[in-house]
Task: structure prediction
Amino acid sequence: MTALVIYADSERSADLYYATGFFAPDPFLFLAESNGTTHLFTSSLEIDRARRVAKVDHIHDWAEILKKFKKKHPDKTVQEGSLIAFFLAKKKILDLEVPGDFPLSLADALRTLGFRVKAAPGLFWPRRAIKKPEEVAAIETALEITGRGLMAGVEMIRSAEIGQDGMLYLNSEPLTSERVRGEINARLVREGAQPSHTIVAGGLQGADPHEEGFGPLPAHQAIILDVFPRVEKSGYWGDMTRTVCRGTAPDRIKQAWEVVHQGQEIAFAAIRGGASGLEIHTKITDYFTEQGFPTGPVEGGRQGGFFHGTGHGLGLEIHESPRISSKDQTLEVGHVVTVEPGLYYPDMGGVRLEDVVVVEAGGCRNLTKVPKFLEL
Result:
């Protein structure tokens, strides 16, 4: 029978944390036997904490396994694969299914020792995409923290004065993307969340959806704030975007903002269990084109319009299954997904709005409570 095996650190492996509920910065081993019995293997450094918090049936100290190995094989060289093989042999396990990112060197070592190792097709834990009520609650908490961080940045922009040069100033100093990002990130850290590449992109910088933003911020132009921290205690992510303007927004930005806002409403009305992500995405892109905001290359060869997906799964990873995009996936009850349409043109900048919803049988429920507004 095949056993499931993960070897990674759970700070980065969502699959491992999902399986064990145990955060550790160094790699450790997880094993699930075919009968459902689970094992965690870690060092003496982590063993007591693992025994206290890990959600597995059996917890093993590598030091104890090493003693048993040396007693039976006093002359053998001890390697990581040898210790794993020693335990597996006692369990009469030969077939292992591992995640696609399982260490190649360890897989090769186990194969050399006679084990059959294969990568799992698709998702290692498909059920991880369907969020339990307590997971939805953890994401809601993450979004509340995310919202407070984002609004700290919004209020900083709102408090800025508009200079004669058309730029923003706060306390007589230029208000920069870096200053606003620092304010957002500081609030997130104080609330127990880890910021990750917070975006504060003003003016034409906003035409690149993943531009983090730099330098002085302009008045009377769109400023995209995209905030996506991970809550340290739970491991779940928040993700939220708002586009604001300090001053009077140009007519094209106002129109783009309203069109993007309506694009979100189209998605909210269409998302439900059994819905096609491709159909939802296509409805939005078609609507944008009808409103005069087509998608495709523009002058100079750069991308223009709505050239990313409408949404992605959110949970223990910032981007996980499913997707609402040109790659068709069916939404299921319990999925938690972002809804983040946007419009981007090199001569305009960008507009994006992002909320997070949980998919229900007859629709969806918006977990994001931060209001939407353009002009400050």
